């Protein structure tokens, strides 16, 4: 599994586990397909922020399936 801290690993259309803002304390993850990448910097220690196709926004915890 690839962590979601580097922007270069994340592309639109890949399957990821994200942590939503309200789940940061519990660490509960939500799985979905990336629609938009919201973090502009190439690296973020807590994970790159993305918007899923269902509209949820959170930080990528891990990449499940890469379309590369």
Q: Quick recap of the structure?
A:
The chain has strands spanning 2-3, 15-20, 30-37, 49-52, 57-65. The protein is mostly beta strands. Strands 1, 2, 3, 4 and 5 form a 5-stranded antiparallel sheet that branches.
Structure description:
InterPro entries: DUF2196. With 68 residues, this protein is an all-beta fold. The protein has a single domain (2-65), classed as SH3 type barrels (Roll), CATH 2.30.30. Helices cover 0% and strands 43% of the residues. Strands 1, 2, 3, 4 and 5 form a five-stranded antiparallel β-sheet that branches. It is globular and about 25 Å long. The two termini are 14 Å apart. The mean pLDDT is 93.
Question: What is the topology?
Answer:
Elements: E1 2-3, E2 15-20, E3 30-37, E4 49-52, E5 57-65
Antiparallel strand pairs: 1-5, 2-3, 2-5, 3-4, 4-5
Classify the beta-strand content into a percent band: 35-45%
Question: What is the succession of H and E elements?
Answer: EEEEE
**Principal-axis shape:** globular
Q: How does the major sheet shape up?
A: 5 strands, antiparallel
What is the residue-mean pLDDT, rounded to a whole number? 93
Structure classification: mainly beta
Overall number of structural domains: 1
What is the annotated CATH architecture? Roll
Work out the helicity level: under 10%
CA distance, first residue to last residue? 14 Å
Number of strands: 5
Q: Determine Rg (CA atoms, Å).
A: 10 Å
**Low-pLDDT stretches:** none
Write down the CATH class: Mainly Beta
CATH third-level topology = SH3 type barrels
How many helices? The count is 0
